[in-house]
Amino acid sequence: MRLHAARLYRTVAAGTFRRYSTYRAATIAGVFTNTVFGFIMAYTYLALWNVRPHLGGYTASDALTYVFIGQSLFAVVAVFGGGATDDMIGRIRSGDISVDLYRPVDLQTWWLATDLGRAAFQFLARGIPPTVVGALAFHLSLPSDPLVWLAFLLSAFLGLLVSFSVRYLVALSGFWLIDTSGTQAAAGILGMFFSGQLLPLNIFPGALKQIAMLLPWAGMQQLPIDVLLRTTASLGGLGGVLALQVTWAAVLLALGRLVTATAVRKVVFQGG
Amino acid sequence: MAFIELEGVEKTFTVRRKRGRFTRTKDEVRAVEGLTFGVERGEMVGYIGPNGAGKSTTVKMLTGILTPSAGRLRVAGVDPQKERVRLAQRIGVVFGQRTTLWWDLPLRDSFTLVRRIYRIPQDRFEENLGRCVDQLELGPLLDTPVRQLSLGQRMRGDITAALLHDPEVLYLDEPTIGLDILSKATVRRFLAEVNARGTTVLLTTHDLQDIEQLCRRVMVIDHGRVVYDGGLEGLQGSDGAERTLVVDLAGPSPAIDVDGARVVRREGDGERQWLAFPAGRSAAPLVAAVAERYPLVDLSVREPDIEDVIARLYRGVPAQAT
Amino acid sequence: MADIRAVRPLNPVSAYLAVAGMWARSALVYRLNFVLVVVVGLLVNGVEFIGIVFMFMNVPALGGYSLPEVALLYGASGTALGLCDLLFGSIEKIGSRIRDGSLDTFLVRPVRLYPQAAADQFALRRLNRLIQAGGVLVYGLVAADVHWTWGRALMIPVMLICGTAIFEGVFTLGAAFQFWAQDAAEVQNAFTYGGNYLTQYPPTVFAKEMVRGAVFVIPLAFVDWWPALYVLGKPDPLGLPAWTHFLSPVVAGAFCGIAALAWRAAVRGYRSTGS
């Protein structure tokens, strides 16, 4: 039974991977946009690091690396929202979600599998090009040790899990709100601010930096990049970072299950 | 000059097809070729054909959404592509599977928007709305948000929205698709009434009962050409259509063997049998022949299934690669 | 029936207002969400500017511009984009209308396509960006060390109107582009939101080639950079003649003209190819 379920979710993920691989024009457009943003941000950061060469413990080329890896992670981790959970929002709005609830599958795992399939494709297609282009145009501090890259991938994967759990909760709000554009916008901007997308968290002022580093969003961009740049000392090294990410992923996924149960009860007893 | 007039109208699309993983080729697809017909003012014409035959391409050209690749096309003496916006004032369109109503707002609000967009004078608007609401039984629904309406209710709303500005011609694309029987009947009754008031109607449908009940003239289009244009009766009689005689016998029996008919189906070990015979022939001699040799208990004659007739018509047309 | 036929089509502005009004009322149906969107939006839209403030907590100036001067750029660019987004922003959603076929329902109405597409999904909640950016602009105008003259004061509204028009041109070009590449809609984000991001920062920050691109290719420099050079009395990073700082109205007009031609060609193309 469990083996059967695992195979089912793998099929779901593989299907989503294939579906995203057919969106060729959209993928190219996304890479283009991420790269353009990368260039614009790169120059603003350079202006900053030219004045303060060791700001936040980064060198100028660390800062540029931060920009382009950040643009590479943009679509994969989907800090702003988007991804499979957007389809879920559509299904809640149209009421099709009730069909999903009667399927003998776990709602959260189903959508997680879908989102992982999407992320796997976007990692290959949208993740690699911006960093490659950035590395051609600027001097980036990319590590040569494959183990560091491996640790980075693990940390980015945990960031994706956290991002999914947050987006899943946002989607679930649709059971109560119908139009989720408000919660989506709020979650998107919180993500942009606290993930380090807007500005690296390590140049936030004093206490805010300490707090932001511990919030779940940090794991979506700041922490994986710090793992790559080996600037994790203030967080207890690699082990500390991963432990923090695992904790948040577990807490938020569990919260998602709890809210799912409430939402299902609402649909079953109140007819949506 | 006919009210709607097409002369040698063609529409060619360029389609990019994936050939291999990276290669793509451009193919020319003829959606419509050499389309020539006319519709008189006040007619109600059924426009039918299989999927991809070119029906909606035709309607889109008639409304000015699409520009023909070749040929001449006039609606009310006007070239639809040149004067699309002006012509829109004089036509009504219902896309069966695409509502123009506002999802979150009460039905009434959608009609108010139509009044503003089409600049309908208030008194005429109220008169037309009143009539539609009355005949389509929309009264209790006017203050209901569209998202809470059933498919049939929404369709009735869409038809109303298409008629408030007194269009001279109404194009309907699958207006009864997915509706329940009661809604279908209401819609058909209403459309007959609209046509009786002088509106020209072009009806695209898969539901042949729509045609049977509403249209005296039918055009069948396939592979972009008109393959039949005439009365429904002519269509039924044409091209080897068959009627079916259903006979109930007193007991089990082998397949009935009579001249001029063949058994197409048996049930209950031959207690009930279906005999197909040419539509042009009378059933009387056949019934007599059966009654003479078999213990006949009951019988009925079924008219040819029109869908089957059209399928037969299609088979007569040389198939093209699609 | 004759009098109906004689009726002239509704003018584009009224058509726009009619459609936009419907969308505005639709949004009010979900009252809780609407309030949430407006309140949360106002709070969190400010977050973006906080990023810039954080930068200035580390440095006294960026590319030779002080915080109030950057605030002026940020506010002007954001106000222009906000106005454009509020009034015409929906045009960027045209790709999904083409894809699902609902563009056809627009085309059978006796009104031109552009006002319908611009008013489509009109949302009052987009006021958020406008209010927030307007606030930052006011701060910039008050706090920046501007040597105010009548000319400089007059340049502010001119800058905002021209900026809105230039962004509208970018949006319209993007929409025209979507007629033949609906799936590549995101490309225009590089120029709309990317353009906004670019013009929030001083031109001196960027490589010369990027600034040249924003002057000569896609005229984003005329949204705020070039008028602001005049207002703030800053040196021109490209060393262009001073009269170019007054060119925004001409550039905006010409650019919108090009965008209008592209739009018309795209609609004509749609009508001859379908989708």
Structural notes for this entry:
The complex is a heterotrimer of chains A (272), B (322) and C (275). Chain A is mainly α and 272 residues long. Chain A contains twelve helices and no strands. Chain B folds into two domains: 4-237, Rossmann fold, CATH 3.40.50; 242-303, Alpha-Beta Plaits. The longest helix of chain B has 16 residues, at 181-196. The model of chain B is unreliable at 317-322 (pLDDT under 50). With 275 residues, chain C is mostly helical. Chain C has one domain (2-273). Chain C contains 15 helices and no strands. The longest helix of chain C has 31 residues, at 150-180. The two termini of chain C are 34 Å apart. Chains in contact: A-C, B-C. Chain A binds chain C through residues 23-26, 28-30, 32-33, 36-37, 39-41, 43-44, 46-48, 51-52, 55, 177-183, 185-186, 189-190, 192-193, 198-199, 203-205, and chain C through 27, 30, 32-34, 36-37, 40-41, 44-45, 47-48, 50-51, 54-55, 57-59, 61-63, 125, 181, 183-187, 189-190, 194, 197-198, 201, 205-207, 210. Chain A: Keywords: Membrane, Transmembrane, Transmembrane helix. Chain A: It comes from Mangrovactinospora gilvigrisea. Chain A: This is ABC transporter permease.
